[in-house]
User: What shape does this take?
Amino acid sequence: MPAVEALEHVFSSVERGLFPGQGRGFQTVAASEGLIGSADLGALEEAAFYALSRERRGRRDSPDKETFFRLPSGRFAVGRTVYRGVDALGREGNYLTRHLVVDREALLELDANPFALLDAPELSRASPEVVPRRLPALALDLPAAPPEARDADGTAPDLLAGLIAAIVDGGEKTVLLIGDEQASRRAVRALFSLLAQEERLRLTFSSHFYESHHLRPRYALAAVGAGSEAPAQRQDYLAFDLAAGLALPARVQSAYARWLAGRVEARDWAPVAELNRLLDRLRGERRGAHGGSLPETPEACAALWERAGARAVPELLGRAQLLKTCLERPLATALLAAAAPSALCGPEASPETIAGLLGEIKAVVAAGDWQDWVGRWRGDPALDLAGRQERPWWRKWGR
Amino acid sequence: MVRLFPSRQRTVAIVGLQGHGKTVFLASLFRDSFFVLAETLRPFAVRAVSARADDVFYGNAQTLHDLELPPANPRGKPEPAVLEFTGVPRQAGRGRRNLRLTFYDLAGEVFSNDSLAGSYAPFLAEADDVIFLFDLTQPGFAALSAARLVDLVCRVGGPRRRPNLIIALSKMDELRVQDGWAEIVGDLWPDAPPSPAELPAYFRQMDNLSHMLRLWWADPARQSQNLMNVLAPRTRFCAISAVGHQPVWDCARCGAVNHGARRECAPCLASRAEAGLRLAKPPEPFRVRDPLFWIFRAAGVM
Assistant: This one.
């Protein structure tokens, strides 16, 4: 059961808040000492924004808003906003926002899973005391329940594949989910279950984005209940209509996104968990002995290389068959820099495989890099083997 | 460069402390233009140009029509709500002009300090017209808080801007029977919208009212001479009521109908708590169009 320390922030429309000079209205009611006077406090106040469309007000439909975002200090905040009816003046439109702020390390202790905090009783209880005061830091004992890839079972595979491509490929645009908010929440939880920790930390979101375009830079993903609630500035968003059928975008640039999309469509969850654990370990985010494994496919290899870069090289050494299928110049150059020919090919590789792999590497790396490497490892058995396997130029012409 | 022709587009900032009636004023202003002026100043018309205007004006006007009050503005950065007024009559002559006004309506609490106002109301730096709404019925309101707000807006707006300032006193319905106010606005009650032929007389009324209100502010009892000295001589003063009567609330315990200002139920002393305000009858606004007409005049279209 991980124990983390969180700072608290409470925001609502009240007669008198934490800073009496602000008078009546929406303001910070209570906050932990560590937030007072910091730039984070202003960001939290801004992110607390909550509005309801006229249609929703008419239906008395006031969804809770869940948020996850990064603060100017680099800390992370999760928040829940609930509608609170009338304010001190008797006007509708009051709301109460509660934020928990944790640092990166604490969030990693929770598997970079903001839902561990959002589901915590401290944040989910309906109405905390709205009394102006300075709060102590909150010690939370949270159940260790990392999101499981199989949590994605309840969401349409084509939607998930499209969302993964949009989120992982990144870009300036915010992904906008339009449609049933419950379905959006399920999709967001499913996304978290499918991503590695670093990607999770980038998946900031707001579950109720009505009239919130000014907050767009904070979120990688936002959701609205209907097209009429979507921001007018559509050019800044990548919209996904949950009611419409979705297909994987024609051009998915990220190898990781392509691989994940393939696993999602096949409902093949185990390799997703394995590769993500491996990524987390290689990137230094996961502590502990068990660190995942690399699925033996060229797509997984490409995904690992794309996400972990040179840190993936030790995992790839000795996998000659796999390497042959996913070699690109940067990877091949990194392999040359990291290992001797024998270590690179592994002890179990056949002479043909060794010759094939080294031939492939020679074909993709710069000639100078290849010559330096061969010169450095002259006498290496694998290199000698490859040399013997290689046909002399006059034989290449012979038929 | 000298501007030879007045711009046909202006930015209007509505400024006031929380609960002083900014949102209701805008809704009532639109309602007056839509239902009343469109009739008396034909072919005058108003239309919402931006998506935000649809919500701020049509949405909130409908809310008033339903005998409810618009909800409190959340603390956020408002998007521009653009209205286009067409067929605005000239005070003298037969020509008609068009004008686009970009309104910004935001939560009053952002005017509590420079930092918040600068962050949430950057449009102040480009505002052509600033309408200050002051509700004298609010407990604790004094000349000092009015002057403080005017100074804050001038600071945030920047030293180079000299916007057209309009000081409007709201909720006049509650004050009009009180001593002093009866002689200033009593004769003007109830509201009478002008026809094009009556515009010159209506403007004379506006001028007179502005002069009377300036004198009211300058009265030593107000202790606001400093504010009057700071304000440019061309600052205009208005007295308005956006709905014409006080909202009410229903006691959850005994069902009694109470005036909005009461925090406790008159018969049973139960707290207002969760009870929301509503209108007891359709809005009957009083001179809510005056700030708009002052803007029309400043823009040179009326």
